[in-house]
Structure prediction request, 143 residues.
Amino acid sequence: MNTIRFSRLHLMLLVTLGFGTTISRADDAAITRRLNDVCSIITGAPVMYESIFTAQFLKQVPPAKLSMLVQQLTAETGPCTGMRIVERRSAYQVAAEATTKNGFSIPVLLTIEAQAPYLIAGLFLRPPVKAVATLDSLGKNFA
Prediction:
């Protein structure tokens, strides 16, 4: 009797843990996909904003305004060359960093919806920071 209870409990625990892992991987894939979308936008690639952002986001920041802001940003930084997660704040929000062709890092805060198609509900691009490789190059930046 106790063995049967233990086996059922063990099976439920395995199913629950396995399901949680699957959801986490799905969330990771959705976050990664949306970070790649943001990198494409920073690169200047043509995108369908309605397939990436929620309607509420686009009401606040229309595609034309978003394009203009990104053009101003990339005039200095160059196009996005990569994206990495710096901190996972929740299942659907990450602090990330975009790297650019001209050696800049752009801090990004990304929030996606909790359900498919995991549209971007929040995007905050902080001012770019120039990456410095050595102390000599740091001195040149201040000269």
